[in-house]
């Protein structure tokens, strides 16, 4: 799929790269699965960039709208999963 990832205009290059890595981790969870540890590391970094719930919700809703993949459901599944498990949506 080709689409633009949601991002904020005031992010640094590093923040853009790391936020995209989180969205790519969500894609990977849907497409082939991802280790919980790897996913949660990407999510923790994303939360450093986007600490507010409202901004997170807006970005994740934008991502779901263009990709069809739910960041929220992926995070919820990852939080409930065993530490060494693989997440597959």
From TrEMBL:
Name this protein carries in UniProt: UPF0223 protein CKF48_01385
HAMAP family: UPF0223 (MF_01041)
Pfam families in the cross-refs: UPF0223 (PF05256)
Domain of life: Bacteria
Species annotation: Cytobacillus kochii
Family according to the record: Belongs to the UPF0223 family.
InterPro entries in the cross-refs: BH2638-like_sf, UPF0223
